[in-house]
Design a protein that fits this description.
By secondary structure, the protein is an all-alpha fold. The protein folds into 2 domains: 452 residues, no CATH class; 29 residues. Helices cover 74% and strands 1% of the residues. Strands 1-2 form a two-stranded antiparallel sheet. A hairpin with a 6-residue loop joins strand 1 and strand 2. It starts with a helix and ends with a helix.
Length: 503
């Protein structure tokens, strides 16, 4: 009964209700603007809410977090510019749908699936937080390394028609992700003596250039082509569609909450893993993935919002941030005199239930605000290209500059925008390159940590890969995926191909 009281506290307090609502609304539009990250917004809010009562501050932050993770999908669908890394996978099929005049339907699906994923993550947070936190704390660096290597296998799902081109793009992305100072020895890598490269290349600047500016340059080829009229009369997905994709949304949500609960990961990795999972389990999509498959929106959107609830699990139960946003929230809790971790659940359980209830309320507001304003948003795609292209370029420049308030990031964005343009002209997909940048540091850091934890003993490292239950399971998944894509029995494959050809 006491838990229910704190769970519903924000629901019946007008001040908390308003703060959660305004936070969710603002988060949607902050997340939709490239370069304006949720982490940045929450960091700024801590300064504004320093003198606030703790519940008010947490209510506003929960709304910003929930809305911001979803908001990135809108510009990903409409302009192929992900507002945040977690929306990269959404644009793979969302943007082709918008080019077919289905932007309203695409945004409606992304909203409903984000809400489903969000509720799934919150439910797991409420019911299984202690169990999952105990599991998360046992995850070793070698397990994170295997998880990152699983991410590398996504190259096959993102490569389009040419796997070789996808592998090349991913490898180049990993090189870009390694530029800067070595995290262990602080030696310079791939900097060529240039001081501008010592801090590395911003992944967000590369993302904005690859997806935003390059798309504007591609659109120059069709400058005289009339904009497609968007159908916005079917924004709310049909009940039959929700039932059809419900199973996939649950599977993707499970991926999202699991990845989100692992410290140091986040919604971007969860969304990419879920997208790859959707490609594997969907046998007969209505249209191929990458050409407007709705499953390509369902999976990443359910996963990245489920990761929100997952990221709160290690934060509240262990005092370990699940991602960059929860790392900032931990700082806010310390400022308010709270110590997140096992003792907080024992000494102040009401804070746990208030957080769960507040996230639930924010998710309800996400459904309301997510399904409103779509008609206005969809008009962006209908703007004449002579007006739209400068708008995309301006948005890309502002987004790149706002990352670090640095003109260098704008120059990187322009350089990779031009580079992405030529990649697309020659049939290369930009998704694998961004994937390589995201995974490079995760692989590098955890490879070092894994070897250090074994004191440099490579034999012990490989033995633990098969003796540890979790490591063995992850290694088994990697091997199974590799075998599923490798023609181990060429004669049998050739015989099957001949039989199909003769028919």
């Amino acid at each position: 009964m006491e838990a229910l009281k704190y769970f519903t506290m924000a629901w019946f307090d007008p001040n908390l209700l308003f703060l959660t609502a305004i936070g969710t609304f603002a988060g949607i539009y902050i997340g939709a603007i490239p370069g304006l990250s949720v982490t940045m917004a929450v960091s700024i809010l801590i300064g504004f809410t320093f003198s606030w009562e703790v519940n008010s501050a947490l209510a506003l932050i929960a709304g910003i977090f929930t809305g911001g993770v979803y908001g990135g999908s809108r510009t990903a669908i409409l302009l192929n510019i992900p507002g945040a890394p977690a929306a990269i996978a959404t644009g793979f099929d969302g943007y082709p749908l918008a080019k077919k005049g289905e932007a309203g339907n695409a945004i409606g699906i992304s909203t409903v699936m984000s809400v489903i994923g969000g509720f799934f993550g919150i439910l797991v947070l409420a019911v299984g937080a202690p169990i999952i936190s105990e599991f998360a704390v046992r995850v070793q660096p070698r397990d994170y390394l295997l998880l990152a290597l699983m991410g590398v296998l996504l190259v096959g799902a993102l490569s389009g028609e040419s796997l070789a081109k996808g592998i090349w793009a991913a490898a180049f992305g990993m090189v870009l992700g390694s530029v800067g100072l070595d995290p262990l020895t602080v030696e310079e890598r791939f900097t060529f003596g240039l001081p501008q490269l010592t801090n590395g290349i911003s992944a967000i600047a590369v993302m904005i250039g690859m997806f935003g500016l390059s798309e504007a340059l591609i659109l120059l080829h069709d400058l005289d082509k009339k904009a497609i009229k968007q159908r916005v009369d079917n924004i709310v997905p049909k009940w039959s569609d929700i039932k059809k994709y419900f199973g996939l949304s649950m599977q993707s949500s499970a991926i999202g909450v699991t990845v989100g609960a692992l410290p140091g990961t986040g919604g971007d990795i969860a969304a990419l893993l879920a997208y790859d999972h959707a490609k594997r389990v969907t046998k007969n999509p209505e249209v191929p993935f990458g050409q407007g498959a709705k499953e390509g929106i369902v999976a990443p959107e359910a996963a990245n919002n489920a990761a929100v609830g997952g990221s709160y699990i290690p934060m509240l139960t262990l005092g370990i941030p699940g991602d960059a946003v929860t790392a900032v929230i931990i700082g806010a809790l310390f400022i308010k005199g709270l110590n997140p971790g096992p003792l907080m659940l024992i000494e102040k359980p009401h804070m746990f239930w208030f957080t769960v209830g507040n996230l639930t309320l924010a998710n309800c507001f996400l459904l309301i605000f997510g399904l409103t304003g779509i008609k206005i948003f969809a008009k962006i795609v209908e703007i004449p290209k002579g007006v739209l292209l400068p708008l995309i370029v301006l948005l890309s420049v502002v987004g790149a500059y706002s990352i670090n308030n640095s003109a260098d990031d704008v120059l990187w964005m322009i350089a990779f925008g031009v580079f992405g343009y030529f990649l697309k002209l020659y049939g290369y997909q930009t998704g694998p390159l961004i994937l390589g940048i995201i995974l490079a540091r995760l692989i590098d850091d955890n490879w070092r940590r894994a070897i250090i934890s074994e004191r440099g003993d490579m034999t012990a490292f490989f033995l633990n890969l098969v003796s540890s239950p979790l490591s063995a399971i992850l290694l088994g998944i990697i091997v199974a995926v590799l075998l599923s894509k490798t023609p181990l029995w060429p004669k049998r494959a050739q015989t099957k191909a001949r039989a199909e050809g003769s028919t």
